[in-house]
Design a protein that fits this description.
single chain, 740 residues, alpha+beta, Hypothetical protein af1432, Beta Polymerase, domain 2, 5 domains, 5-stranded mixed beta sheet
């Protein structure tokens, strides 16, 4: 125990005030010094047990550095700042992590709170230590506004997560760092207590829960409860204590019945412990209605857990459908054990049966599984880290996506070989395909679900589409077709970041090829209009030499032509690639003849509205038949706008675009998807427009998206002309907000 701090007796306050206060301060310093020394000794002893001379030397460097640079700093609690990194490092020791993690924990605040730089850490300790300590350092800016502070916070999360997916030990340190700060928050102003508690509850609690850090998660939540709702917290604690006293004899009697049953079944080496409800369970509940959660039965090994389950179900009535085997199939957060509900002394009682090893693993989650490399982690943790890697690999930090993954219920799905894979609830066949391999996802046409091995060709009734949602426990075998390519619509049917990134990557590659082909066709058209033979011109030494002189590859030249950074004719003229006569004649034709005798044909013709190269702008929602223009985006696709849209005039170089599909005269099945106000009679008004234009409806489906009605319609074979009239009339309805 810490030595007590002397308190001045009230009656001596006036008589010996100054001397007694000085004595109290001196004793506080002594107490802090003793704590610091004890923590150093304990940490030093732990590392000696690891038998690593090099790390012991770095440990002494770390003690020296934090003593020097944190030595004069004081925390809000009045304790020396030095105590904080020592406590965090000792927490790392207590869960049995490796010496380098302990040393980083000691150093974790140096860059943020002192004059020490990342380069100095690298020089003294090495690259890895500099990388880790920098990953734990907040991103700040002087006198940041509220909006800037939020951006800094998001950037800090992104930085931490980027480091975490490469080395998860950074998260372990951050978890204990936050926990120690939460324990020491009492002296802080109320607004800071609330801000830090909200952040902890919304960010750190979901992460801890997802990674099985049950002990940390429980304490986080209780501390958040204490600082967010102090009055209700005190009442909850008091009420739980009263309930515990009231039920003490009943709980002891139930415990005795369970112990007696196990003893009669010759199941020795078992402990039966009541699981009492912690205050944190009531952070979102107003009424304190129970104190007993159930009982935990600790046994020696896995086989004994099933023996205990059998004994209990033989002696007590089991509640149907309440048996859960998380030993053969661990839960998504790594939890292992058996759970059941039985009637004990007339009361429905939850029972958890775990081995002592399982209980330790459940308590410390991913930390208990860490053996040095991510590849040694259990599948349910490794997959989650891969999902985080996919998210933080995007252009902008998306902490809300990380939290959504953390809080989403998980499902277990099996490969044809019986290997388990974990996905967020709502994941589809397409998500599964992309998780297994990118090529499987890019060519996926569907899957066989729960089909017997070796009989895939006879399991037609098991075949499902790639959009189909997966359910817990299913076995999935992906079906592919090499002629299939990813489409932008696929983004509507996936939930994982990996699938999203792979689809976008495939679309970018497809669109880059299409864009270059589009630019090359434009260049070839220009050459034809100048009277040049395309292939011989593009392959000529003079053209290739001109590219070299400008320091351009052919692809770069095409890109600059397409984005109007280079004018083809000026380039030709600069390097004397086309005769002056041809250039002058073409310019004269464009100026005098073309306006009178012909209209300029569009640079791009839309043949299919579902072409993945096209993106129809939401700002003006163009429809087939509208006068439109295109704009090449950074994602290498062609964004289509109505010609009067202000956006197309402000951004980039517009490309003249037309509708090739309007030349069709053969009726075919057509689709309409629209969003409308959710009002009575909306379907009647929409179907009336379709009927008045002589078209029939094959299928109609409606639903709700937020506060609007989402309506999908499939028309009977209809001509383009009739289809266009229907779209224009639907767009004119006030109740219709958007048509796709």
């Amino acid at each position: 125990m810490d030595p007590p701090i002397l308190q001045e007796p009230p009656e001596q306050k006036h008589k010996e005030g100054p001397n007694m206060l000085a004595l109290v301060e001196e004793k506080k310093i002594d107490s802090a010094d003793q704590k610091i020394q004890r923590l150093k000794d304990d940490i030093r002893e732990y590392l000696r047990g690891q038998n690593n001379g090099e790390e012991l030397l770095k440990l002494e460097y770390a003690f020296e550095d934090i003593s020097t640079h944190h030595g004069n700093q004081i925390r809000k609690s009045g304790e020396p700042t030095l105590i904080h990194p020592l406590r965090v490092a000792w927490s790392i020791c207590e869960v049995g992590l490796d010496p380098p993690t302990v040393i980083v924990a000691l150093l974790h605040d140096l860059i943020e709170d002192t004059e020490i730089t990342k380069e100095q850490i690298r020089t003294r300790y090495g690259d890895w230590y500099a990388y880790m300590v920098d990953g734990l350092t907040k991103i700040t800016s002087p006198k940041a506004t509220k909006g800037q502070s939020q951006l800094n916070l998001e950037a800090t999360y992104h930085k931490m997560l980027s480091t975490m997916v490469k080395d998860v030990r950074i998260l372990f340190i951050k978890m204990f760092d936050r926990l120690d700060n939460m324990r020491d928050m009492a002296p802080m102003p109320r607004h800071k207590q609330r801000r830090i508690s909200h952040e902890t509850y919304n960010v750190y609690v979901p992460l801890a829960k997802r990674l099985g850090l049950e002990k940390i998660c429980q304490e986080y939540t209780e501390l958040c409860f204490k600082y967010l709702y102090p009055n209700r917290y005190e009442k909850t604690v008091e009420k739980l204590q009263d309930l515990k006293k009231e039920r003490q004899s009943a709980v002891q009697e139930m415990c005795g019945l369970l112990q007696g049953t196990l003893r009669d079944s010759n199941l020795s080496h078992t402990d039966v412990d009541p699981i009492f409800v912690h205050p944190e369970a009531y952070i979102q509940k107003l009424e304190v209605d129970k104190i007993l959660e159930g009982f935990r039965i600790l046994v020696e090994n896995s086989p004994a857990t099933y023996q205990v389950l059998g004994a209990l179900h033989t002696s007590f009535r089991a509640v149907p459908l309440k048996i859960r085997d998380f030993i053969s199939n661990p839960r998504w957060d790594g939890y292992k054990g058996l759970q059941t509900e039985i009637i004990v002394d007339g009361e429905v009682t939850f029972i958890e049966i775990v081995s002592r090893e399982m209980h330790a693993l459940n308590w410390h989650g991913i930390m208990a599984y860490w053996k040095g490399t991510p590849s040694e982690l259990a599948e349910y943790y490794r997959i989650y880290l891969e999902q985080i890697d996919d998210i933080v690999g995007e252009k902008e930090p998306r902490m809300e996506e990380v939290l959504r993954y953390s809080q989403a219920e998980q499902i277990q799905v099996f490969t044809p070989r019986g290997e388990v894979r974990f996905f967020p609830k709502g994941a589809t066949v397409l998500d599964f395909a992309y998780h297994i391999h990118t090529d499987l996802g890019n060519t996926c046409i569907g899957a066989l679900v729960n089909a017997p091995r070796g009989r895939a060709t006879h399991a037609k009734d098991k075949r499902v589409s790639r959009e189909r949602e997966l359910f817990d426990g299913e076995s999935v075998r992906i079906l592919t077709n090499s002629s299939i390519k990813p489409h932008r619509n696929w983004l509507k049917h996936i939930v994982t970041a990996k699938s999203k990134n792979e689809i976008l990557r495939a679309l970018r590659i497809q669109n880059t090829i299409r864009t270059r082909l589009f630019w090359e066709n434009s260049l070839r058209k220009e050459l034809r209009e100048l009277g040049e033979e395309e292939d011989s011109f593009l392959g000529s030494p003079s053209f290739r030499d001109a590219l070299r002189q400008d320091g351009l590859s052919f692809e770069e030249f095409l890109e600059r032509i397409g984005t109007k950074k280079i004018q083809a004719r000026r380039f030709f003229k600069k390097y004397d690639l086309v005769s002056e006569g041809k250039l002058d004649r073409r310019e004269w034709q464009e100026r005098f003849l073309n306006p009178f005798f012909s209209s300029k044909s569009p640079e791009f013709l839309i043949e299919d509205v579902n072409d993945p190269f096209l993106r129809f702008a939401q700002c003006c929602s163009p429809l087939p038949g509208d006068r439109v223009m295109g704009r090449l985006t950074d994602e290498q696709d062609l964004e289509i706008h109505r010609i009067q849209c202000h956006t197309i005039k402000k951004e980039g170089h517009p490309i003249s675009t037309g509708w090739s599909l309007l030349r069709e005269d053969k009726p075919k099945i057509r689709k309409i998807h629209l969003t409308a106000e959710d009002k009575p009679g909306v379907l009647y008004k929409i179907t009336k427009v379709i009927k008045n234009n002589g078209a029939g409806i094959l299928h109609i489906q409606s639903g709700r998206v937020e506060n609007d009605a989402s309506i999908n319609i499939r028309l009977e074979p209809t001509t383009v002309e009739s289809y266009h009239k229907i779209l224009l009339q639907l767009r004119s309805l006030k109740i219709v907000k958007k048509i796709i």
